[in-house]
Predict the 3D structure of the following.
Amino acid sequence: AQKITQTQPGMFVQEKEAVTLDCTYDTSDPSYGLFWYKQPSSGEMIFLIYQGSYDQQNATEGRYSLNFQKARKSANLVISASQLGDSAMYFCAMREGKEYGNKLVFGAGTILRVKS
Amino acid sequence: EAGVTQSPTHLIKTRGQQATLRCSPISGHTSVYWYQQALGLGLQFLLWYDEGEERNRGNFPPRFSGRQFPNYSSELNVNALELEDSALYLCASSLYGQSYEQYFGPGTRLTVT
């Protein structure tokens, strides 16, 4: 089974509107972390936001928020007030417990295009 | 604070040759990770080094190897290059045991002809 599933290969959003990028995950480890990264066409992976499995509140970082629904094993990224510079590939990733070696497992990504 | 740096930016090799990719982590970070992003295969974990030791390895053949130096910088070596090794190789660093965030460098694009 896929550890990280991103079901939206591509998304369009109008500038200044909010957009939600979906991510579901699969793990039996009670201790895990969920990440979102942005990859512009330049290739660099930019860390956006982190949510720990024991965190009680949803993570927020500026215009980014993570809608964490633990029972549903989903960790959707919400970008508010989209900007043209938000156009990029977005990856959801998971890090499981230390016995899994601290590696990040990535989803297939979602390409976001912001329209003016 | 300087971010993760990688060199070279681009590398072109022929099949059968060896490639060496370099990574310098963020100051204070002791863990270095290598990932391969090949077209159509997504991002796949290659190696994790911490305090000079290989801590974990992804599902890659032994011709992918590396090391971490006392200053925590790292080198990824790919021997006997194959065409399918063409990919973007991303290095990331983190604080081991304290911070879960992995910060990535700009990557090295390896092309094997």
Q: What stands out?
A: Chain A has a mean pLDDT of 92.
